[in-house]
Amino acid sequence: MYLTNIATLYRGVDANLSGGLSTQSSSTGVRQNSTTIMFGATVTPRTNLSINPSYSATSSEQYGGGIPDSTNATRTKDLSFVYTPLPAVYLTASWGSVTQSGRQDRLKNYGISWSPFPGGALQISVSYTENWRSTDANHTTFLAETARWNITNRAFFLLSHYDSTSTSTIVTSDATGYTAELRYAF
Asked: Quick check: pTM over 0.85?
């Protein structure tokens, strides 16, 4: 059972609170109980800026069925910003942490998207995202370019390309992809 409440506290300030309980049992006798509470807000001081703090806590326990009893607690804190200085430019940043079983992981995410011809027959967009995670010093970058030509209201041609790089204390990987798509709806 989960309950959610959303409220507009002031013009440009919305808050949400939700929480719940769940229980599961299997035919082998294993039981699991979970409790979750979440709080968040959206603060919009200007029409092109949004600030979003959030917090969630989940506790769960598993027992019975001949397996060792276990408990787990997860706490997540996040603060994100979305800024649109121009209709074609979208900037985002977030910082957060996840604490689970006494281990804390810090997260940082940054992104930018640019689409110079929104709503036209030719749509071009470029987006860049950068993620950083402290646990394994993981750093990921992702760059994508997309061009879409709306030939008619039933057909379009899409070209896209992406480059992704991920490095950590464990592994480094690079990926590149290309897509060409012609779609016609009958």
From this structure: no
